[in-house]
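Input (structure):
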């Protein structure tokens, strides 16, 4: 590609092609990308071919069961993530201009973030700055990191299996997971149980309850005790996992401190192990490259300040 062709790219490039390419790389498949974009597969495949023609570079090796992002594709993908993130934040930045010192904060969160000082921080910030508006999106921890990386979320709260080099991580709190059953289950209110009593039971769990994912300590315990192959239902949301356990679909794992009231109210019953339950760390995830508005900066700074004020021993639950 000559210099004249390179200079024409900013003027002639269809920016929608970049977003399509970004989703293809993220999904690792043209078919899955089409499903996510709600488009037909030939449309997505055609968009990739048009982008490669405009750039005069092969971006993805495909065909015969092969799907590999080329060096040029990797470089373009990194730029696409930044471009998409900056464009996504235009509405937030413009809203700040209109609302003076107020602003909007989008928080991406895993569903089982039950943390008293987090709630208190939001309450304190709202009391001081009632003009700040909020949107909290609940998703898997992997999607939380993706949203923060793409700058579609101000910051995130979730589990971390693998750290991304472009993101920052502040340890929020440690929670412990226990096994529970509901009133309809045969083990409800039974005492003196051991892990061996759970080996024939069906399990309800989170999607990340896998050895290769964020709930690895829980998956490892199940594997060590031969409880690994009987997962009958999964969800990314604590509320839905709890619902299925209470309904008697199976026994399952929940953060111990998050369901203390349910245990007191007779909706859940704690099962073994009663000692040394699996520990999971929750992190405050941010993107240093995000151009924070004043509201985002205020909320994030308040949370980080609380982390320095509260010792980790007081941020360990269950």
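Output (sequence):
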């Amino acid at each position: 590609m000559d210099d004249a062709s390179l200079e024409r790219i900013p003027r002639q490039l269809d920016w929608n092609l970049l977003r399509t390419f970004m989703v293809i790389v993220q999904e690792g498949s043209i078919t899955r990308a089409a499903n996510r974009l709600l488009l037909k597969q030939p449309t997505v495949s055609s968009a990739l071919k048009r982008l490669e023609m405009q750039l005069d570079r092969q971006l993805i090796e495909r065909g015969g069961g092969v799907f590999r992002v080329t060096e040029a594709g990797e470089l373009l993908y990194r730029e696409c993530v930044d471009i998409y993130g900056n464009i996504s934040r235009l509405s937030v930045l413009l809203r700040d201009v209109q609302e003076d010192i107020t602003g909007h904060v989008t928080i991406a969160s895993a569903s089982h973030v039950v943390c008293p000082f987090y709630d208190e921080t939001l309450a304190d910030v709202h009391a001081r700055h009632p003009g700040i508006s909020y949107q909290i999106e609940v998703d898997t921890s992997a999607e939380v990191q993706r949203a923060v990386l793409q700058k579609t979320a101000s910051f995130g709260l979730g589990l971390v299996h693998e750290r991304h080099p472009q993101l920052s991580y502040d340890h929020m709190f440690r929670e412990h997971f226990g096994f529970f059953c509901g009133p309809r289950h045969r083990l409800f209110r039974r005492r003196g149980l051991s892990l061996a009593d759970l080996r024939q039971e069906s399990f309800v769990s989170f999607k990340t309850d896998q050895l290769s994912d964020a709930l690895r300590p829980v998956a490892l315990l199940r594997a060590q005790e031969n409880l690994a192959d009987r997962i009958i239902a999964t969800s990314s949301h604590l509320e839905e996992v709890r619902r299925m356990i209470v309904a008697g679909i199976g026994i399952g794992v929940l953060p111990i401190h998050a369901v203390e009231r349910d245990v007191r109210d007779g909706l859940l019953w704690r099962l073994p192990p009663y000692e040394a339950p699996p520990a999971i760390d929750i992190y405050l995830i941010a993107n240093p490259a995000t151009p924070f508005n004043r509201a985002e900066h205020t909320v994030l700074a308040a949370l980080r300040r609380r982390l320095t004020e509260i010792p980790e021993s007081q941020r360990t639950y269950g």
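Notes: The CA atoms of residues 93 and 253 lie 41 Å apart. The chain has twelve helices and eleven strands.
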